[in-house]
Structure formats: C-alpha cells, structure tokens
Amino acid sequence: MSEYVLQTADLTKTYSRVNVVDKVNIEIKKGDIYGFIGKNGAGKTTTIRVIVGLAGQSSGEIELFGEKNLNIGRRKTGTVIEYPALYPYMTAEGNVECQRILLGVKDKNKTKIKEILDIVGLGNTGKKKAKNFSLGMKQRLAIALALIGDPEFLFLDEPTNGLDPTGIKEIRDLILKLNKERDITVMVSSHILGELAKIATRYGVISKGKLVKEFYADDLKDLVRNKIKIKVNDAKTAVSLIKNQLNIKNCELKDDTIYVYDHLDESGKISSLLAKHDIIIESISKDSDDCEEFFIKLMEGEDQDA
Amino acid sequence: MLNLIACDFYKLFKRKSFYICCLIAMAMSCLGVIVLNAVLNMGGIEISAEEMGYSGIYALTAGLGESTLLVTILVSMFIPSEFAFGTIKNIASKGINRSFIYLSKFIVCISVCFMYTLLCGITSFTLGSVMWGTGDFSGQNVILDIFRMFGLFLLAQVALQSIFVMVGFITRQTGGAVATNLAITIAVPTVIIKFIDFACSSWFKIQDFSASEYWVSDYLNNFPSLSVNQDVINKGLIVCVCYIAAATAIGIYTFYKRDIK
Fold it and tell me: What global pTM score does this model have?
C-alpha cells in the first residue's frame, strides 16, 4: 500500500482562462497533519474542492491512497469545506444519523453516533436543533459528519474561521486527538499561521495558485530560527575567524552574508574580533525573522531555499 | 443508490414543510368539495347533487389537482436546500456518482407526488362521499377507470415535477427555484402557450396546431376524468415521457458539468 494518502501531479484548475490552481504537486503521507497555508484567494479551497470531487480539474492528476480511481479513495475521506454544511432543522444526532444512512454504516443501537458525538464534544446537545448551535458547535458537528464511516483522511478547510480563541483551541485539540488516537491523516487549510504552527507536521504554502513550498515542521525551526546577519568586505576570512577563534560552529556563508546561529548574544565579541583583524563590517544585526514573517514572505510568493 | 434514497427520505420526513404542505393540499381538496357544495346551494339553484352528478367519485376527480401546487412548492424548496445548506458537499465529496444523487432526489419527488395525490384523492373522495354519497361503483370498469385516471394524472404530475427538479438543480437557490417553478406553472400555459398559438394561427397561418397539446399541464387538467379520449391519453403519454426524459437528461448533464460551491 502506498505511503502517500494524497499525491497530485501538476493539478490545475482554470476559471475564465485564469489558473486559480496552477500545476500544484502535493504529497501527503499517512499520519501527517498537513497545514495548507495561503492568503485568501490563494487557491486553498479550490485545490481541496478539486481533490474531493466538488470541482473538476482542468488538467493534472490526483491519486488518493495510491488509487487513480478517485471514487474509491474519496469513500475513505471526510470533508469539511468552508462553512459547516448541516441540516439546520435537525438535531446533532439527526444530522449524524442522516450521514450514517447515506454511507450505509451499520449502527443498531446508535452507539457509533453517540461515540462520534462524544468525540467532538456534542454528546449532550439533546433535542437542540443545529440552527441554534454556536459556530464552534456547528464546526464540531461538521467534523462529526466527516468522521462517519471511519475516514482515514480528513480535509478541513478553514475549520477555525470565525471562532473565538476557545473555539479555535477546541478544534485544534480535536484535530490532534483524531490524528493521534484514530491515526487519521489531516489536511487542514488556513490563512492563520499561528493555529497551524501548533499542530501541523508538514506544510504546503500556496500563493496565486502555485504551491511555493512544502516542508516538514522540523525544517521550519531551521528556516525561521534567530540568527546574526553580518556583511563584511572579506566574508571567507571572517567565517574562518568566527569559527576558529570564537568556537562558533553553527555559522555559514550564504550570498556574501554570514549567518551565525549560536551565541546570539555575542555580537559585540564578533564585531571586535573582526575589527581586530582589519575586516570592515558593513552591517551586523540580529535577524528577527519569525515564523509569521517567514510564512508571509512565502504567501506573497517569495520562494526561499530551505 | 438505496442508501441515497433512504437518506433523502429521512431528510424529507424530518422537514416540517413536508407535513405543512401535505396538510394544506388536503385542506384545499376539502375546500374544493365544500365550494362545489356551496355553489349548489347558492342563488336558488334547484338542482340536486345527484342531478349534477356530484358524488365521492366526482369529488375525487375534482380534488386530485389540488396537490400540484403544493408538490411544486415542496420540490422547489427540497432540492435547492441541499445547495443552500451546503450539505450537497457532504454527499458529492464521498465519491458518489452525481447521476445517482440526481435520480435519488427525483425518485423522492415522485414519491411526494404519489403521496400528496393519493392523500388529496382520499380526502376529497371521503368528503364528497359524506356529502353526496360515494357514487355508482356498479359499472364494469369504474374501479379500473379510477386507477387509470390516477395513474395518468400521476404521470403528468411527475412530468411537471421532473422540470421542477431540473430547475432546482440548475438554480440551486430556494427563492429562485420557487419563483421559476411558479412562473413555469402559471406563465407558460397562460402567456407563452397562448402566444405560440396566436403566432401560429395569425402569422404562420397554421390552423390545426395547438401548442397546449405539447405542454404537460394541459394533461394535468385533462387526465383527472373518467372518460378521457384514447387519443388524448396516447398523446399525453408520449408528451409526459418526453418531458421526463428530456428534463432528467438536461438536469443530470448540468449537475455533472457545474462545480459545487
């Protein structure tokens, strides 16, 4: 069986001659929580809609669970796209029951329904109709519907949109719980970076329909870690001096700029060492690029090398 | 497919509007019979119900048509609501063939036609029988004629509803579907058909053509009768089947072609 639950090859969706999804190649491994990040209108929702079959692709290929027959793969997925899609005149149990009937899931004593409602924290809503639910409750109920049929892969499109901080945390915790306890792979899209940074194990950044970068959460730490940036007239000598005389090993030269990743509070020592060896310092500064700035740069379409 | 149909029935029976429309249709059937009776006793007409041919059977033929408007309203709300609530995404994203989704909804709407027509028929027959007696069942073919009338009326109604299901899938909005479907019900026979007939006779000098013979609602009016001309039945059957086939084909095609938002 394929280790990838989703692979796309040059996936493209065109509306009125504009590529809103432009040759996107996504790879999601089993067990990932894939954070799909992009600004509003970047193509996140359209990409997901094409993958789950709500919109047809203009070109490119999609494989779900290593299968090119997507109807088979889509039966193993659960989807929540944009706003929670519920029957407002039904209770939480009614909504889940409806989806259960649709998927033909056997549940004689309604134990499965109760279990799923308990997982999302809606076990005690009783006869309250979905139209009277708060947005957070509606979002959790939509996830409950997606969980019917024991999906192996969940698509959650902007699941925290419009939620208050408590609601956001609840959804975040729920995603983590589903991933850890039920081994469900999750693709979660958002334009709010902070919420994804806390749960995603892998990221894909989309900008203007193009997937500009894919990387693991562990790589992110390297990509956004604090550093001292130094520009001098003789960079090679300077790197050698810093490494040998100050014993700073984590130092590199990239595009005529020296990056020092350790001893971040020793910029004074570095300055005086370089000055002592007649190296002219053009600039020395602490690079304060944080996670958010990094993502914003990517989302604006500035590709960065990992 | 069976799961889809079961799910659509579950949704239908959970809707209050299903029961409300049903009650209104039955009430309208009753009202139709009451109005007939009131007219009989009004203005000093001294003809008995028996002389007028009023009976339970007559009330049945008069009451069947009351279901059409209410079925139209229910179908116009039921189909687009899936798009309005966004719940069509929960179905279509599960790898279910879109033609099955369409056909499932159409089957449920046919069932609604059947239920409403049957209930309206029973209601008007019962009330008519209470007021004027059941009527003469002794004839050789009366029961058979009633079944035939019921079947033909149902076919005409299904043909009309097939258009409304198609409109629901195309407009994807409750308001738009209700407005369009009511316009089709009212404007087509009263304005468009008459205009086509006028154009044919006045401008193109075609005298033996009547556009209403090719519009399904003509048969909704003609079929609830125990003595329908066989030619009308034959023509009606062909027209209704053509409408059902064309509307379903167009509906499924557009549902396939358009993305679900």
Answer: 0.79
